[in-house]
TrEMBL record:
GO-annotated biological processes: phosphorelay signal transduction system
Gene Ontology molecular functions: protein kinase activity
Family annotation (InterPro entries): HPT_dom_sf (IPR036641), Sig_transdc_His_kin_Hpt_dom (IPR008207)
UniProtKB keywords: Two-component regulatory system
Residue span(s) of domain HPt: 25-93
Entry keyword Transcription regulation: no
Source organism, top-level taxon: Bacteria
Protein name per its UniProtKB record: Hpt domain-containing protein
Coiled coil: none
Pfam families, alphabetized: Hpt
Organism: Marinicauda algicola
Amino acid sequence: MSRPPVLDLDHLARYTAADEALEAELFALFTSQTENCLARMMETGDGEAFKAAVHTLKGAARGIGAFALGEACAQAEARPLEPEAIGHIRDCARETLARIGQVLAERPR
């Protein structure tokens, strides 16, 4: 099985009607939400609070086309508080945020 894309820009373009300003705004919101969800995941010792943060991040990731992160979150929902699942989410989130940074840096200003 192949790994889902870090960031599916075609999906995002369909979602935003290729409006780069809207994409940039969504990237900023997603970055903030990712940081918030990761912090909540790391702070909680409560499986339900963890799953709520993971679920929120999963929806946000899938919405912008960050399918690898969305899949990592979907898997972690079934394994709340498992250190490997948390680490995988953190790695996918870092990779996604780095890719977002690349996309924004490549755009003409």
